[in-house]
Write a structure and sequence with these properties.
three-stranded antiparallel beta sheet, D-Maltodextrin-Binding Protein, domain 2, alpha/beta
Length: 246
C-alpha cells in the first residue's frame, strides 16, 4: 500500500520528534557553592537554573551529575548532548562549545593562611614565587600556565585543593569569596583564618552554561530562547539568590 504524501510527511515528522526526544541531555558540573549534593541529589542555585531552562525548552529527558571539573570538561568536549555549567567563557574556549547564556559573574582572588607575613603578593609576578593550588583543566590553571607560572599543584576538586592549603602543601589558592566561605564551613575552619591578598582581575568573568559542539542546533536554539525568557522575567536572578548553600 502506498501512503499519500501528507500521511508520509506526518509519519516522518513524528519519527523525527520521537528521535529528538530520545536524546537525553547530560548536564554536568563540579561541586561548588552553586552546585552540591543534597540527600543524594544535585542541588544548588545553578542546578535550579539549568532545570528551569531545560523544562521551559521542553527538554525534559535530562540528568544532573557532579564530576571532577577535568572529567566534566572532557565530556563536554567529546560527547554530544552534554550541557556543562558553570564555565568561564574565554577566547580560547569560544569555538569549543555552543554557548547558551551567562548565569552569574565571578571574581577570583589569591588566598593564603593568615599569619604568614613573609608571603607578599602585590603583583601577578610576585605570586610566581609561591606554590599555588589549582584545579585540573580549570580556567585558573590555564591562565596561570599561560602567564608562565611553574609552581602549580593541580587537584581534582575544590576540597582537595583547599585541604592542601590548610596543610601548607601549597601557599596560595585562587578562589572566589563564595567558594572560600563554603570550603571553610565544610572544613570547620574560621573564614577569618584566610587572608585575601591579590585579585586576579584578568579572570573576572561571567560563568555560563554551554553545550558540547556536537549537540544538535535545535536543542541549543530552544535552550537559548528558554534561558533568555527566564532572564527577561527576572527568574534567573531569583533562582540564583533564593537558594542557600548546603
Amino acid at each position: 500500500m502506498r501512503l499519500r504524501p501528507t500521511i508520509w510527511f506526518a509519519l516522518l515528522l513524528a519519527m523525527t520528534c520521537a528521535s529528538s526526544q530520545a536524546e537525553s541531555i547530560k548536564a554536568v558540573t563540579e561541586k561548588t557553592s552553586y552546585s552540591y549534593l543534597q540527600e543524594g541529589q544535585v542541588a544548588g542555585p545553578a542546578g535550579r537554573v539549568v532545570e528551569a531552562m531545560l523544562q521551559r525548552a521542553g527538554l525534559n529527558d535530562y540528568s544532573l551529575t557532579l564530576y571532577p571539573w577535568a572529567r566534566a570538561y572532557d565530556m563536554a568536549l567529546q560527547q554530544p548532548n552534554v550541557l556543562i555549567y558553570l564555565i568561564a567563557r574565554t577566547p580560547e574556549r569560544e569555538p569549543l562549545f555552543k554557548w547558551v547564556g551567562e548565569v552569574t559573574h565571578i571574581d577570583y582572588h589569591f588566598y593564603k593562611l593568615r599569619g604568614q607575613p613573609d608571603i607578599r603578593v602585590h603583583s601577578l609576578t610576585d605570586a610566581k614565587h609561591y606554590s599555588i593550588g589549582v584545579l585540573r583543566a580549570d580556567v585558573r590553571q590555564q591562565y596561570l600556565q599561560a602567564e608562565g607560572f611553574t609552581k602549580l599543584v593541580s587537584a581534582a576538586d575544590n576540597r582537595e585543593n583547599f585541604k592542601r592549603l590548610l596543610n601548607r602543601q601549597v601557599l596560595l589558592v585562587p578562589m572566589s569569596e563564595r567558594d572560600a566561605m563554603l570550603l571553610c564551613a565544610e572544613a570547620g575552619v574560621d573564614f577569618a583564618s584566610l587572608e585575601r591578598i591579590y585579585t586576579l582581575d584578568a579572570l573576572s568573568s561571567g560563568l555560563y552554561m554551554a553545550y558540547s559542539n556536537s549537540t544538535d542546533d535545535e536543542t541549543v536554539t530552544r535552550s537559548r530562547a528558554a534561558f533568555a525568557s527566564l532572564k527577561a522575567e527576572g527568574l534567573l536572578t531569583k533562582l540564583m539568590n533564593d537558594q542557600p548553600g548546603p
